[in-house]
Design goal:
- The protein is α+β, with helices and mostly antiparallel strands.
- The chain has two domains: 2-162, no CATH class; 209-342, 60s Ribosomal Protein L30, Chain: A.
- The chain is 72% helix and 9% strand.
- The chain is built from seven helices and five strands.
- A hairpin with a 2-residue loop joins strand 1 and strand 2.
- The model has no long low-confidence stretch (mean pLDDT 78).
Length: 343
């Protein structure tokens, strides 16, 4: 009996050390797994924190790129495509971050997947760093393009300022030329008025004995009866005498007026309002008035007056001196007018 009890005690003592060793081993394994889990959790939190920093930096860069691309949208379509790719990569990284965060929240299978997740996170960070470098390169390219555009804008502004200065100078010169031209024209008009006054004064002297030759305003007026028979454009003998005096006065005027003056003596023919019969040489008062003015001009040219200083015009009955049907009114409206004016 004693021997049997001794054997049982020996057998019982043999199992206990093994059980203790097993429990110790299990405990070490559990401690190791817990340590591994905590280390993995620490690295995951560090990686996620670094990932947030990278993502924040990328988001800031994306905002800057978006503003720059808005200025160069028309000429930077390729950069917009690159930005879209960058945004897609960021969205993928954010999705990966959300997945890891959900995994940490659930804490399910973290220890077994920690190694692979850390590896995937490192790969994602490397990819994002590559994308970030590309984004920085694109930002640098955009900065260079914007600098070039600013230089071009500055050059255009300089050119515009120069053009505006030239325009102001041109406007000033034009205004000055206009003033000088107006002064010169006013002087010429004054001189021409003086010659006109002298010419009409001379005509008054040589034709003062005729009551049917008079001055009306700035015109010297011959009644048609002085020069022509009724309905005719042929200058009569009495008219030739008066036109000879007129030709002498014009020749004196040509000698007095400097050659740079563009002046003419306009000869205007006028009739009364009574219509012609239509059976003679002239079918209307307009034709008769023009023919009489041309006859006077031809006569003066024959007497030596320069044709360049003469103009003939016919007004028919449409510019009467007086309105009425009396013989006296009709006689005053039948006339030849002489007007000294500019060409």
């Amino acid at each position: 009996m004693a021997i049997a009890r001794t054997r049982r005690r020996e057998l019982r003592a043999d199992y206990w050390p093994g059980f203790v060793d097993a429990m110790a081993t299990l405990l070490l394994v559990i401690i190791f797994l817990l340590s591994l889990f905590m280390v993995a959790q620490f690295f995951l939190s560090q990686q996620i924190s670094g990932k947030d920093t990278v993502l924040n930096r990328l988001n800031s860069q994306i905002a800057e790129l978006t503003q720059l691309l808005a200025l160069e949208k028309a000429s930077n379509q390729n950069l917009e495509d690159s930005l879209a790719s960058l945004q897609s990569a960021v969205l993928g990284a954010e999705a990966e971050r959300d997945r890891l965060q959900a995994l940490l929240d659930n804490q399910s299978g973290a220890a077994s997947l920690a190694g692979s997740q850390i590896s995937e996170l490192e790969e994602a960070l490397v990819s994002e760093q590559t994308v970030s470098q590309k984004a920085l390169a694109q930002v640098e390219l955009l900065n260079q393009q914007i600098l070039q555009l600013r230089r071009q804008i500055a050059a255009l502004e300089d050119a515009l300022d120069a053009s505006e200065n030239r325009d102001r100078e041109s406007q000033t010169r034009i205004a000055d030329l206009g003033r000088r031209l107006n002064v010169a024209l006013a002087q010429r008009v004054q001189e021409l008025n003086r010659y006109r006054s002298d010419f009409f004064g001379r005509l008054r002297e040589i034709l003062s004995q005729r009551s049917d030759i008079r001055v009306v305003g700035d015109r010297f007026v011959f009644q048609s009866e002085v020069l022509f028979a009724s309905g005719s454009d042929t200058i009569n003998t009495s008219g030739s005498t008066e036109l000879d005096k007129l030709a002498d006065a014009i020749l004196e005027l040509e000698a007095q007026i400097p050659p740079e003056f563009n002046w003419v003596l306009r000869v205007d023919g006028h009739t009364d309002a009574r219509p012609l019969s239509g059976t003679g040489r002239f079918r209307s008062n307009w034709e008769l008035s023009a023919a009489r003015a041309i006859s006077v001009v031809r006569y003066l040219v024959e007497r030596g007056v320069k044709p360049v200083n003469l103009v003939a015009a016919g007004f028919g009955e449409f510019q009467p001196l007086e309105v009425g049907e009396s013989d006296d009114v009709l006689a005053k409206n039948r006339r030849i007018e002489l007007k000294l004016t500019q060409r």
